[in-house]
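Students often ask why we bother predicting the structure of a whole assembly rather than each chain alone. The short answer is interfaces. A chain on its own may look different once its partners are present, and contacts between molecules only exist in the joint model. In this exercise we take two input lines together and write out one structure for the complete complex. Read the inputs first and try to guess which parts will touch.
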Amino acid sequence: MAYELYYWDGIQGRGEFVRLALEEAGADYIDITRQPGRGTGAMFDIMKSDSEPHIPFAPPFLKDGDLIVPHVANILFYLGPKLGLAPQDEGLRHVVNGLQLTVTDFVAEVHDTHHPIDMSLYYEDQKPEAKARSAAFIRDRIPKFLGYFERVLRQNPKGPNHLVGDALTYVDLSLFQVIEGLSYAFPRAMTNRKAEYPALLALHDALAKRPNIARYLASPRRLAFNEEGIFRHYPELDSAG
Amino acid sequence: MAYELYYWDGIQGRGEFVRLALEEAGADYIDITRQPGRGTGAMFDIMKSDSEPHIPFAPPFLKDGDLIVPHVANILFYLGPKLGLAPQDEGLRHVVNGLQLTVTDFVAEVHDTHHPIDMSLYYEDQKPEAKARSAAFIRDRIPKFLGYFERVLRQNPKGPNHLVGDALTYVDLSLFQVIEGLSYAFPRAMTNRKAEYPALLALHDALAKRPNIARYLASPRRLAFNEEGIFRHYPELDSAG
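Now the answer. The structure tokens for the assembled complex follow.
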């Protein structure tokens, strides 16, 4: 039975971290809300159900038969072994999950660059605060997070081609997406910084060339970044840093 | 061999979610940085190591022999089965993990009520923005998150005494801590709201009476809440909502 992915229909957003793993593995999945004639109704039906025993707080969530698995890191932890994108060793699976949760935190901070005060308001209603938060993000947080992942690659005893062990795992794919997203949202900051993270950039470039990823990126299933998603390009928030 | 917990030495913070699980289970653990003569040096030695293969991004992290497991939800996912605080069923473990990750998101939003712009600055340097963010948090986010967890309890097919299944899991203990923390940080908001979440409050009160938890809360191992932690009481940020 195909996996069912539930997420907003018009953005990459957090759903994209799950899509990249499913696409790399060539897994059979349905991106439910993007099916012709569907939309987000089916997603809200589950979230608002008053009978479903395990309701998710927010999208994305995965449905595998009757089981509903919410949260990106949880979905990937669940799918990783099934898709051949997790280590065999149980302890190393928790190492991968720990890295994925650092990605989760970083992505939440990316979101807050354009929504630092109130996520129920528009970006346009919190622009001065967004500018202040983005300046701190570019100055402190991008170097802190990317510097950390660069160290993880360099200190991997199996070599710098993967974050954990000597084979591809789902967190490698998530780092690919982080680099993609930051390069879209903060091109000036990233242009000035990229040389500091050679192992991360090499990982990104290698993954872009993997056949299933290259095919996905060129397909209509890969939505373009836009200003409804997590990674948004507002030139006034970007700076050389 | 005892589990080693690494976290800041003067606050409950995120480490408290791990401590509550270890204490409930009566597990053998060492709160490393709080040992006489230790402090946070041992924690930073691991984080800054240039030879450790799996460096954590931030505390808390758990050391179990050679394995380092970072992030609260990851530590609890790892410990849950070993401590008898996770369901037997593999799918339900991912349900518990999904709920724990919703707690993670909520706790990050609590942090941002006093640090909405720049976490490298003091609260005092971002007070107007903190007031705006706290107002939105009290108005929108507390009801959204607590309302969700209340629904999860009510829709549990096994009854409203636990979030998942018919036995205690670590995420029940984390919800206890969330209620404790919110009641400390936002007493006015919570006083006005508590009646809306009877199942959550009943869970909180029942857990406070469990022998190991009651003993822990009365011990010097339970630090008091303070204004260095995640849950901070700044009267000017609290309101009846």
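Check your guess against this: Chain A has two domains: 3-83, 90-211.
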